[in-house]
Automatic annotation (TrEMBL):
Subcellular location: Cytoplasm
Entry GO MF terms: dynein heavy chain binding; dynein light chain binding
InterPro entries: Dynein_IC, WD40/YVTN_repeat-like_dom_sf, WD40_repeat_dom_sf, WD40_rpt
BP GO annotations: cilium movement involved in cell motility; inner dynein arm assembly
Record-annotated membrane-spanning stretches: none
SMART domains named in the record: WD40
Protein name: WD repeat-containing protein
Protein keywords: Cytoplasm, Repeat, WD repeat
Amino acid sequence: IRDWEKEAKKKVRIEMDDPSIGRRKTIYDLASYVSSGPSVSDILKLSIPEITAEPKIRYSVSIGMPGIAQIDLSPLTQKIVGCVIGEDVTTEYPWVHVKKDIIEDNIDLHSESSDFLPVKDEISAFPDTKILIGYAPSLYEKAQFYICLTEEGRNAVMRSIQTQREDHENRVRNAVYKSPGQWHDLGSGAEVDADVVKNTRPLLMVSTADLLNVPANLTDRKADEQRDGYIELLPYRQTFENVWRKLVSRSTQVIPRVRHNEAQTGPSIPANSWFQYLYEYETVDLSTYPEDKIDSLKDFLRRCTDEMCDQILMNSMWDIYGSDYANLVRNEKDTQVPMPISYKEHQSYYDGKIIVDKVINDLCWHPFWTGIAIATYTQHATSEHLIGPKTYDEVLLAGEGNNRILIWSFTDCLSPKLILECPREVTSIAVCPLDSTIIVGGCANGQVVVWHIPGKIEQVEAVVMQTGAQAKYSIAMRNLMTWMRQTKEMSLICPVAMSSLKYSQKAGITQIIWVPSHHKVDKNGRIVSLPEDATVGDLSWQFATASQDGTIAFWDLKCRLAEKDASRHNRRKKAKRSDITTQPLSPFKILDRVFKPDYILVVQYPDESRRVVITMLSMYNPKFRKKQVEPFPVRDDVTIRKYYRPIIEKADYAMEPKMLVGTVEGEFGCITWEGYEFATDVSVNRETARWLWMKRTHDGPVTHSARSKYYHRVVATVGGKIFAVWRDDYGEPLVWKKSSVRYTACSWGSFRPTVLILARVDGTVEIWDFIVKSHEPSFTQSVSGRIITGIYTHQLPLEPQCIGFCDFTGSLRMFTAPRVLLTYDVSDIEWMKKFVDRQVQRIKEFKAWQKTWRETNPQDIEMKKKLVEMEGEKKRFEAEEKIKVDMVETADRGITPTRPTARRKPWQFLEETKARWMSMEVKRMQRVILEQKGLRKDVLERQRAPILRLRQEARTKKRKIREILNLQDKIFEETVVFLFPEQYQERRETLLPPLPVPAVDRRLTIDEFIKQEIALRKEGVFADPDEEIIYNFLEVQTEALAKMKSTPFERTFNWRKVLAQGKSGKIGVYRTEEVT
């Protein structure tokens, strides 16, 4: 066999050693200079017909494996068969499987120029459907690929790969896990050996069997034959201890004789069932039987017919040779080993140079391309719970902060494709559903920013084809010109427009949602529906933004500027000097600094003028159907991008003036607006929204919401430690659960409409599948060590489907969903709708029953209300008394009284701030007056110190005297009891004042008695303090009797049960004594 590699290396070495190659030929040395026409030898050569030699197969010998040949593959052929250098094959992973059909199609299409012509026959004779191709770069010849043409060569390559992988794993394992070395005893071996745990008896062999597949012998387990057969019955809240039976070991020399009997050792459930069912029967011809056999057959049938029928009936009803364990299981999957369900991490996207100490606050996907994510980074996420002062300067962060939005692609996890810059921190992001080149962001100061990126991603991803010399020259030029500053960076994109600061919202933007494309909100707040035949250019480009200042603004990217705004923009445009290096202007540049909302909704609390702090906003926007377009991927891979285009069709949906709003105090509700019938002269119309319903369910800010794409009326929200599932037209949560830790994000599943994904602050993900169970999550998985700031499922179909988790480190971690969660069934949508309707009906029926019960039991309700009021009155009285005592003590000490510690309302912060400011101003005025009069505070304090000391001593003396006077009655009583114990009882009886006799001699009810006693106490009819104490006791006694009457005590004592327990305990004690 000819070794082409060695010959090529030898040839290159000879050519490099040739001294004639060192000097470049001049024009005089060329053959064309000697003669202008062809020579005689050249003419004779042309007359001889050229014989083209058949291409020979260049088998590789240096690899040491048979059946491996070298081939040359052009870049086009590499792309067709799927072995592109740098993408499909690399020096780290050089081997790849290629379908045999693709290679044969290439040979058929290019029968004369195909790169596989030298190995055409071997490829056709190859028996497998896939061929192994390897990549091996060479410095001496062009051939960089090897192909396995025989099964022996392929198997040898696979064995070599497996051997290399095992060697690498062993090296890594030996580097991590160190094997212990030899022990060198230096005198402490005996002590160490004494501490080593050793086995003093042989280990017990325990064998287990699967009851579903192996025979099982069930026997009775008697308590007398077990060591732990008896237990002690203890009262409640006592330690449970076993009563151990002592084991008595006795030796015996009697050995039972072992008898082997095949009939007794036969399996009860034989594995073979052929003898029962797989039998053969041939028709018997009775005409060939003699008369004696026919008579014997008749006699047999006459005698055994009944018994045979019974046996057949028994076999049809009960199969004694079959296993009943498998028949007891309804579902076959219950007999199988449960498979673990979990998300598998695919890639992580993070750039530490651009994002430093920041996290992802919002993320959106490209509407038409797969694998493109747009993420905005902030100092803190919305779902984070911050305590204490801020650790950063807001002014510095707003003016000079690194405020950037990154556009990531699945093809590159180390560096983003584009970087969107903004002068302010961007808190929310959204992409236009009709034009993916328009990106809208909301800033922390309330402004709206617009980016326009037509063709930017394609420009960055464009591959410049260069030869080796060109690439080398480019690298050399860049190294020599490092002192130059790069004037234009393709990946950095500046905003084309920002909204007017005057008309923008006054606090951070929390969420951006798009208005349905076939509807629009005019400047008067009225909803206008567009016709079905409207072109793409006539569709609406409106979006709504929610702000923390309690407003919702509607913006229109197709708005027409007013005359004064247009003239101001034109003057600024004319004043700007033209530059040939600038890029073409975007059509949205005219909106820069003059963009303002069309309509603003103000959201306030019901019956209050205080605005809510909006944290989330939700409105249904029907999605367009999407169709995949070329180029189609060759294989299913997440990193291979798919392209889609929308099918513009008007959905069967009429937009209503309704929105779902979540607040920072945990409220969630639905608002509506009416709009104006006539135009006003105001530049931006405002309207106070009206609440349709509002419910406070969450115990923290409502940070995230997710609307199901299969049933758009279902919305899930998370806030605090509670998540809830709502129907947008009903004001009660259908399902809500409270966890031990805070929830931070939520999202519905991409394929199954019953799956809800929740993220927690401890980095755990909960997957709820309501069709499986609705009281607890189906399974949980820990994907991060700390908080997860967001969950975003990929909108377009992928194989496998991906979901992004935003980590606390600021990285976007992409996971692939398990196969169990990717099964789609149309019946699940109907089940989810019925489940939601059933929950609504259940809540309505419960409320109706509750209302009926209240109407039929008014007395019990009134009694409970009165008891609650009395308890509240008592607590209020005690609080007032405590405040009075505190005020007296603070007055005696000369300290300014402080307000009682209580839970303040959120809006009381401003009032307390004003009070503190006034106290600071008073102190400042006092200090100024002292300075003007020439007095010093330390001198005054030193002068009045003796007076304060005398006052403090007098107050201490009075307090001690007051304590002794308060204890005089107790001291007297104790003295009387000690000296005259027989007189104490009589004296106590004479001290009790007589009870007042009612005017009417009748028994009062509990309510009348309570009212009468409270009225007497309010009127102040008690002449003696002891009388007041007695009546207070009677009041408490009345409340206790009422409570005992409402909840009567039921005796649980059972004499027979006690006797049975005592008898069983006595028997157990006797048996224990017998054993001992």
